[in-house]
From TrEMBL:
<keyword id="KW-0808">Transferase</keyword>
<keyword id="KW-0472">Membrane</keyword>
<dbReference type="GO" id="GO:0005975">
    <property type="term" value="P:carbohydrate metabolic process"/>
</dbReference>
<keyword id="KW-0333">Golgi apparatus</keyword>
<comment type="similarity">
    <text>Belongs to the glycosyltransferase 11 family.</text>
</comment>
<keyword id="KW-1133">Transmembrane helix</keyword>
<protein>
    <recommendedName>
        <fullName>L-Fucosyltransferase</fullName>
        <ecNumber>2.4.1.-</ecNumber>
    </recommendedName>
</protein>
<comment type="pathway">
    <text>Protein modification; protein glycosylation.</text>
</comment>
<dbReference type="GO" id="GO:0032580">
    <property type="term" value="C:Golgi cisterna membrane"/>
</dbReference>
<keyword id="KW-0325">Glycoprotein</keyword>
<dbReference type="InterPro" id="IPR002516">
    <property type="entry name" value="Glyco_trans_11"/>
</dbReference>
<feature type="transmembrane region" description="Helical">
    <location>
        <begin position="12"/>
        <end position="28"/>
    </location>
</feature>
<dbReference type="GO" id="GO:0008107">
    <property type="term" value="F:galactoside 2-alpha-L-fucosyltransferase activity"/>
</dbReference>
<keyword id="KW-0812">Transmembrane</keyword>
<keyword id="KW-0735">Signal-anchor</keyword>
<keyword id="KW-0328">Glycosyltransferase</keyword>
<dbReference type="Pfam" id="PF01531">
    <property type="entry name" value="Glyco_transf_11"/>
</dbReference>
Length: 320
């Protein structure tokens, strides 16, 4: 009898411990703490801004898509004299301190709705949206939407949180030290595989091995002391199939370190890209020479039919 009570007491004790642990995770939220702290930087819509016409945009797809939409939001709002607004739960907050007002569709009041015609082409209609609050819907994959705010995006908007930026600096210092490449020109190589290998028929081309050799040799001819940083969503394929020379370093960041990968690639001096919006953005923000795969998107496919190449690829990027 006494023994049974003792056991029960012990069970209660463990139950109590379990509840404590659950409460700890619920309230302390140890994995999300960074993101919560980052939300503190968000600027609400001010009372004085209540009647100013506003612009909101859809955020579809992944990080690279969201960066296109955000940049378009800023460029198009400026052209139309509208106040740009994004929602508090946008994933871009996890990467950047964004200097825009936070709100939701209710803050627009009566608004116009505009849907893009092609996913990767410039639509001049977006220059004539004001003076009404507007919601624009689409992917908006063209540098022409935000050419007017290019500098501002780089110097004021896409600024990484300090911890991500410092981790990326450290990553590059470690890579240079390990490869004994002090003072080298650093070339970020984005090796996009994964879903792009499986969706070839739509036009999501994954570049062939020969492209990487051509592109890397292009930079080896151009600069003498060089280090390639290889970043891939399939690093095993990359290591098995691509160059293993003394000037090549493979990143083994895990898939949940996408923000670190982006920051590392942007800090590289020049970029070799393949396909997809992640590739596009690291090239755009790193600001050096850019080489891209000329068969993305694959001609004649549905993605190619939704793309105007001159609107998608900036003119100074080099196709190989
Ligand atoms: C190359 O990139 C590194 C790392 O971001 C930077 O420290 C260095 O100044 C850059 N070099 C040139 C020539 O831009
Ligand atoms: C793409 O456009 C071409 C030319 O207009 C057309 O022949 C082809 O069927 C289209 N392909 C797809 C997959 O939409």
């Amino acid at each position: 009898m006494a023994m049974a009570v003792f056991l029960r007491k012990k069970q209660w004790f463990y139950m109590f411990l379990l509840v404590l642990v659950i409460l700890f995770f619920l309230y302390m939220d140890p994995f999300k703490s960074n993101i919560k702290r980052r939300h503190l930087n968000q600027k609400p819509i001010l009372k004085s801004q209540a009647n100013i016409p506003k612009l909101m945009i859809s955020f579809k797809g992944r990080t690279g898509n969201h960066m296109f939409c955000y940049a378009t939001l800023i460029g198009v709002s400026r052209r139309n004299n509208l106040l740009p607004v994004i929602s508090a739960d946008n994933h871009l907050w996890e990467l950047f301190n964004l200097p825009v007002q936070v709100g939701n569709i209710g803050d627009l009041g009566d608004y116009n709705y505009y849907e893009e015609k092609l996913v990767a082409a410039y639509d001049q209609h977006t220059e004539h949206l004001g003076p009404y609050s507007t919601y624009i819907d689409g992917y908006f994959q063209s540098w022409k939407y935000f050419e007017n705010v290019r500098k501002e995006l780089i110097t004021e908007h896409f600024i990484f949180h300090d911890d991500i930026s410092q981790a990326a600096d450290q990553f590059l210092i470690d890579a240079v030290t390990l490869k004994k490449k002090q003072g080298a020109v650093i070339i970020g190589v984005h090796v996009r595989r994964g879903d792009f290998v499986r969706q070839r028929s739509k036009g999501f081309t994954a570049a062939p091995v020969s492209y990487y050799y051509k592109a890397m040799n292009y930079f080896r001819r151009k600069y003498s002391n060089i280090l390639f940083i290889m970043i891939s969503n399939d690093v095993y394929w990359a290591e098995d199939n691509l160059d293993q020379g003394p000037d090549v370093f493979y990143s083994h960041n895990t898939p949940d370190q996408v923000s670190l990968d982006i920051a590392v690639m942007i800090k590289c001096n020049h970029t070799i890209i393949t396909s997809g919006t992640f590739s596009w953005w690291v090239a755009f923000l790193s600001g050096g020479d850019v080489v891209y795969y000329h068969l993305y998107p694959e001609p004649g496919t549905s993605i190619a039919n939704m793309t105007v190449r001159a609107d998608y690829y900036p003119t100074h990027w080099v196709p190989l």
